[in-house]
Amino acid sequence: MKNPVLVILATLALNASAQTLEVSPIIENEFSSRIFYARFLDNKTIAFSGPDSSIRLINLSKLSTNKIDGLKGKPDAFAFSPNRKYMVATSIDNEAKYWDLKLGKVKYSYGEYAPGYVNSKVIRFSPDNSRFAINWNCDFAVWKSADGKAADTIKTPENECANVIAWSKDGKKMYVGGNSHIWIYDIQTNKITATKNIEKISVVNDIEISPDQLQVVVCGREGMLLLNADLSDKFELKGHTGWINDIAFSKDGKFLYSCAGTMFGKDRSIKIWDPATGQCIRTMESHTDNVNCIDFSPDGKFLLSASDDKTIKIWSTKNQSLLCTIVPIITNAELYPVFYTPAGIFYGYDDFFSWATVKLDGKEITSASTSKETKAAIIKAFEQAD
Q1: CA 340, CA 269: separation in Å to the nearest integer?
Q2: pLDDT above 70 for 366
Q3: pTM
Q4: Residue 252: is it exposed, middle or buried by C-beta count within 10 angstroms (0-12/13-18/19+)?
Q5: CA–CA distance, 211 with 185 (Å, rounded to integer)
Q6: Strand partners of residue 235
Q7: Across residues 29-40, what is the average pLDDT?
Q8: Superfamily in which the 155-285 domain is placed by CATH
Q9: Separation between Cα atoms, residue 293 and residue 25, nearest integer Å
Q10: What's the pLDDT at 371?
Q11: What contacts 277, CB < 8 A, 6 or more positions away?
Q12: Where are the alpha helices (DSSP H) in the chain?
């Protein structure tokens, strides 16, 4: 006899609009943890730093899982090269490693590559994949991808500390953000060519350059600025009430996305802005705690967001709708993600119900097991948005 819960859930794939699924806030426990960092590896694979030393992978086409090992400690940041062939990651133990993803092996290992602990690791590959940079001790160290050797160090102005960088499309310069200034660093001459005071938005959390290279957006703890490429003022983007943690231009450059969250406020939103006017045109709210990062799939069709609420959410950029919420559960070193959609389709780990309350149309669901029907319905939701 079929499980009646599965019959209901399978039916939702055909009549999804009539159902609502509610999931209680995910409690902190041995199975789950806050998601500090997540990125797309390819158009249908997301990667995130979990509670152990692995970088975990979830394939949205198959709902399958995998992992990248090699670090000793918990990863605090990672980056994929633009061609998706390589990855650099750092850990809380202050190690840095470089992977050849095709071979699935660590190519270079740097150990404790910098004196002292590195605060808020940031890793950025150059557009041509030839170099990568990691911030340390208020500067950015640059290495060569070909041999793993040091190439240069991006210096900072006096009394400043480099927090984040963004490479120009031609790889000849960097935009660098610090505690109270941003500046343009010419890589060929090793000189700072322009500097701007941005004390009004406080410490810089992220910098992004528009695809056409004509605009630069910088976000901080107190706000966000949209500037021209020469750092002259364009707009102050007003709307968030919390720290702005991450920003990203859409692939066509028509929209700017930002996410917020801080222990001092209640703004846990993702906002969409029109770079042409500086106006917020949409606010997307679903996370129940700080939104730490956002990222687009390489083809620009999907947006992910990762949060302190222990979830990763996948959104369609076609209509800015939430497609699915993912709760990564890791137990006995294995990953068992739970998937559920706003339409009420649930697929995942049985034990999830022992520590989270799930309600379908207000009625509590107490148990469920995996099924081919609900798995197919989740995958179909991604395919339809593709």
Answers
A1: 20
A2: no
A3: 0.90
A4: exposed
A5: 19
A6: 226
A7: 84
A8: YVTN repeat-like/Quinoprotein amine dehydrogenase (2.130.10.10)
A9: 19
A10: 73
A11: 235
A12: 4-12, 372-385
